[in-house]
Predict the structure.
Amino acid sequence: MSIKSSLSFPFAKYIVSKNKKWKNNAVKVQSDLLLSLVKQAKTTQFGKDHNFTKISNYTDWKNNVPVRDYEELKDYIQEIIDGKKDVLWPGKPLYFCKTSGTTSGVKYIPISKESMPNHITAARDAILSYIAETKNTSIVNGKMIFLQGSPELTKTGDILTGRLSGIVAHHIPAYLTKNRLPSFKTNCIEDWETKVDEIVGETLPENMSLISGIPPWVQMYFEKLQDKTGKLIKDIFPKFDLFIYGGVNYEPYRKSFEKLIGRKVDGVELYPASEGFIAYQDSQKEEGMLLCVNHGIFYEFIPSVEFFNENPTRISLADVEVGVNYVIILNTDAGLWGYNIGDTIKFVSIDPYRIIVSGRIKHFTSAFGEHVIAEEVEKSLQETLVKFPAQVNEFHVAPKVNPENGLPCHEWLIEFESQPQNLAEFTKMLDDKLQGLNTYYKDLISGGILKPLEVSIIGKNGFRDYMKSIGKLGGQNKVPRLANDRKIADKLRIF
């Protein structure tokens, strides 16, 4: 056992024990955090505009600060870009995280000197929670790879700007950098396919123990390794013990991964966002991810069924319930206030507070009033695959409003690695499962408004080719699982 390995377990136990203080007192920690954030930002432009000096409790907060998305905060962001200080948070941001926007095209998310450490600490604690629970310290001895965006930074105004993963790469603790791959030079390659080819070359001779990234892009990396060697991943990297992932639901990829790897590998799910690190999986035995209540974010929640109402219910952590889909709202120590990131979550536990990501509030299929969400389609597919074994690489659901023949329906565009033996029976069960999970959809079927769903098969690497065609191959980019129109579906059918 190496010195690093022997020290990692007691350190992991210490950190996990330390984190119990906020884990077991989450509601009070959140309440105190809100007042702390308000106090720190009361002299900012936003604080003055929203009466921060008069806010002393959560009710005051709701009465003074509305829920907004990026478009509604964009004027404040522009002031920062133009060089103004003390706009959303004291001083100027340390970085802008540049992400894809909706209406605006590009979003510039501020990261402050206060918020930056939380991104690092939460990711570290996720790994340490795994070590403390499993006693598997061997992962610290091998090489680690993080498939991510380029660490190269530019400037927006006078503020350093880059992708979140690239910014974080500049703050990796020294004790991890020696074991970390790929090289800085390779990480800076913009073309994703070229980058993955270089990563394959750098990692093949190494003892890889931890691999991290968004599942579809890690899958691409694994496939290239297999194509080059003709071997399973377990034979290429016999010490590979831990897969860290986030960004999309891993379940649809699990079978493909296990086939590529050749055995089961432990996984740790993360929920990082440009706006802050929200949650991480702290147990291999319990469902969900631990909500990071002590990491500079005060959370609010709006039931997703009410979100588009004029006056939706808006609550703090103290009033959440298990099993309800909520739109998650962030208030951060980088100056994002009442900020809707567009994600929906569901609590699977309130002792401690653990969540799953259930989808995107803007990613749904509801052309006929059914409001089918990501959690429902993913669960339907997962349960169907138990009865009809197949390997699904990727999928997308969109409405077929004006079919050439018959009633409208949902179209599932699926890229199979291996197809089910009976596609017709697979399709029927998929529809039955979805009806069981969404009563509105069931009513539309039984009422003769919709016909059962259709499955359209997309060719090998079709989703990958689509992402390449729109310039979004790799990194943190992913195809939405659902859409309320056919913009993506019609383009996917080409491939």
User: Anything to note?
Assistant: The longest strand covers residues 339-350.
